Each structure stands twice: as C-alpha cells, then as structure tokens.
Amino acid sequence: MLAVIRIGGPILREMLKREYDEGIVPVLYEDTPSSNISSSMDSRRSAYSLASFQKKTLSIKKRIIMAARKWKGANNDPPPPFSNVEALWTFAGCFLTILMLLYFSDFINEQNSQYSLVLGPFGALVTLQYSLTSAPASQPRNVILGQAISISIALCMTYTRLEANIRRSLGTALCVSLMARLGVTHPPAGAAALIFTGGGYTWVHMGIMLAGNVLAIISAAGINNFNVKRQYPTSWGFGYWIKYVCPRKGSKKGD
Questions:
Q1: Residue 204: CB partners within 8 Å, gap ≥ 6?
Q2: What is the pLDDT of residues 222-245, one digit of tens each?
Q3: Surface-to-core class of residue 162, CB atoms within 10 Å of its CB (0-12 exposed, 13-18 middle, 19+ buried)
Q4: What would the pLDDT profile of 109-162 be if each residue is shown by its tens digit?
C-alpha cells in the first residue's frame, strides 16, 4: 500500500500541476506530501465546483446582454401596405364572411336557445384569411386541426378542480404549445382555448365552432380566388398526416 502511495503521489501531483498550467483547475497546487493526497482531491473538487459556478454565472450574464440587445430589433423592413383595391377586397371578404357567420349563429340559436356560435375567434380568422392569405396559420389544415385540438383540451380542462385563473392559463398554454409541436399553429384557436377553458361550454359548442370554421374556409376560398392576385388555400395539407403516420416503403416519416 505504501508503495502505491509513493508511486501514485508524484504522478497525481504532476497531473494537478499540468491541469493548473492549462487553466483547468484555477488553484495552485504546491508539492504535496503523499499523506495529504485526499486533501488535494477535496481541493480539486472545490475548484471544479467554483469553475462550473463561474461558467454558469458568465453564461447567464451573456444571455441577459443578448436578450437586451434583441430589444433593438433586427432592422427588418415592415410589410408593405395594401393597395386601395386590395384593402377594399379585404373589407368585402371580412364583411360577407362575418355576416354569414352571424346568420348561422342566429339559426343555431333559433333551433336551441342554449347554443350559438362563439364569435370571438372568427374576427382573428377573417384577419388571417383576407389579410395574410398565404400564411401557414391561415390554411385549412391549421384552421380545422388547430381548433379541434384547442377546444378539446379546453373542454377537458373544465373537468379539473384547478382554480379558474390557473385552469385558463394552463389550458391555453397547453393548446398553443401542442399546436406548435404538431405544426398546426392557428392564433384564433388560442383565443378559443382561452374562452372555452372559462367554462359554460359543451362538446356541442365545439361541433358548432368546427362547422363555423368550415363555412369560413368555403367563403374565403370563394371570395379570395376571384381576385387574380390571391389564392386560397395555398395548401390543404391534410395529406401530410397520412404521409407522416403511414410512410411508404423506403421513405422516412415526414418525407
């Protein structure tokens, strides 16, 4: 045992000195007797802990500085304004679509006074369909799947015993993050999630909402496609899920 200590002690001291010279261990190791090897090892662990803490602190400082710099913006040009003709086309599309949805809501309410269309998210929907026609969030796949996912989660959250503000915050966050994960981000669906997690709605309301979204898609396709500068939708996208879930032989998921 003494032979091992006598042989290993100088080797260990040499290793520690080399690490100090290379800047790995930020403490100076003097020649240490063999009997104090364990003490040297404790000092080494403390040095590594201090170095790790300093590195993390420096990383946090860098992130704060980086975040502060980003507030200046990326100096990108804002999107150009619409021409008078395009703005008028947007006005007509929004007016006709919302008018149709209001009559649809009134019709549902006449059949059963307990039900009607939750109209809030549709203001955001027509904004996407007639002002950001080619945006991915405006396309039918995102509209239908985004709403279906969000309202389903929101209704399930109403069965929990969470405090109202926590329930609404958590439900909306789950909906938005899941839509992002699945590639079906749709801002009006986030609004619907916030509304439905408040309670007072049923699965029948979800069916009415999906029907309203289908009507809005049909309306947007009909109105936008009469304009030679517009096309809606640019992609239906529902086939993507079939390719992803059931890929062909020799291809990878999502190809």
A1: 115
A2: 999 999 999 999 998 877 656 655
A3: middle
A4: 999 999 999 999 999 999 999 999 999 999 999 999 999 999 999 999 999 999
Q: How far is CA 55 from CA 45, 51, 151, in A?
A: 15, 6, 44
Cα 166 from Cα 189, distance rounded (Å): 19
Query: Token digits for 19?
Result: 């690490």
Euclidean distance between CA atoms 224 and 213, whole angstroms: 16
Cis peptide upstream of residue 121 (ω within 30 degrees of 0): no
Contact 169, 154 (CB under 8 A): no
Model-level pTM? 0.71
* Beta carbons of 142 and 217 less than 8 angstroms apart: no
Model confidence at 176: pLDDT above 70: yes
Q: At what angle do helices 140-157 and 187-196 cross, to 10 degrees?
A: 20
DSSP for 187-245 reads HHHHHHHHHHTTS---HHHHHHHHHHHHHHHHHHHHHHTTSTT--S-S---THHHHHHH
